[in-house]
C-alpha cells in the first residue's frame, strides 16, 4: 500500500532471534508531522522496532517504506542520509567541545571530529547551527563546553546534533529519563516544535508525559500492536489495562 501521505509505512514486519519473534507481522503508519508515542511492557519489542526502522537490526521479513520508498535493505548510514534520525538513551555528545562545535561536527559533510575543528565554518553552517541552537533552547550556550551543561541540556544538544542532519523522521528512546520536572516540560515543548515540520516517534513509560506530547499512542505487546489511538482511547482499553497500565 504505497501512500505518500505517510512519512513511514511499515507492513508485515517480522524479526526472529533464534526462532523467537521479537516483532511479529507488525504494521505501523506514521503521518507527516505526527508525534507518535510507543508504549508497552518491557520486552514488548519497542526498541527492536526502532532498531529495525533505523537499520541497526535487519528484518527477517516485511516492508519499511520511508516517504514511499522501500528502505528495508538499506544500511543504517544510508537511512540517516535519507532523513531518519535516532537518539539512543545514552548521550553521545563530545563533552570537551563547545555546544557550537558539537553542532558543527554533526553537519552532514562526512568530516571527522578532528577535521571539522580544523575546518573554517561557512556562513551556511553557522546559520544552521544558530537555528538549531534556538530550536533546542540553547541559543545563549553556544560557547559553553558541553560537559558543563545540565543533564537535560545535554539531551537537547544531542537532539540538536541529530537536527543538524535535517531528519524528516526522528526517533527518541525515553527522552526525559533522569530529567527534572522543569526539563520535562521544556522537552515536551521542544518535541512539539520539532514535529511542526518532521515526524517523531518516541518510546516512553511516563504516562503524564505521554499525555502531554502524543498525537497518537501505539501499545505494543509480545511483538505485536495491542491497541492504537488517542491516549484516552488506549488507556480505557481493557486489554491495555490488563497487560500494561493496570500494573
Ligand atoms: P522493549 O524495548 O519493548 O523493552 P525489546 O525490543 O528490547 O523490548 O525486546 C523485545 C524482545 O526481543 C525481548 O524478549 C528481548 O529479549 C528480545 N531481543 C531483542 N534484541 C535481541 C537480540 N539481539 N537477540 C536476542 N533477543 C533479542
UniProtKB/TrEMBL annotation:
Domain ABC transporter: 8-247
Organism: Ottowia thiooxydans
Gene3D superfamilies xref list: P-loop containing nucleotide triphosphate hydrolases (3.40.50.300)
One term of GO molecular function: ATP binding
NCBIfam families: urea_trans_UrtD (TIGR03411)
Alphabetically ordered keywords of this record: ATP-binding, Nucleotide-binding, Transport
Official protein name in the record: Urea transport system ATP-binding protein
